[in-house]
Amino acid sequence: MAKYKVEVTYKPGVLDPEGKSTLGALKTLGFNVSDVKSLKAYIIECQCDEKKVDEMCRKLLSNPIIQNYSIHKL
Where is it found, in Gene Ontology cellular component terms (predicted)? Predict the structure, then answer.
């Protein structure tokens, strides 16, 4: 059984509402923060290779128009 971590992030220039909201909240709390980016992470256990995980990302886990993803074998 293989285990992979998939991280999905917004592409540069795409609005990240969760990151912006968190940035505003941190500044309100007095933290000196210049930027916050959000990401979604998946831990996938499967009997498959990285090629299949890539297919999962392209078909379901990310929106290729506005998001990038990276795959890390654990």
Answer: cytoplasm
Give the Cα separation of 10 and 67 in Å (integer): 4
CATH of 2-73, one of 3.40.640.10, 3.30.1280.10, 3.30.565.10, 3.40.190.290: 3.30.1280.10
* Residue 71 binned pLDDT confidence (cut-offs 50, 70, 90): very high
Predicted model pTM: 0.88
CA distance 61 to 67: 10
pLDDT band at 49 (very low <50, low <70, confident <90, very high): very high
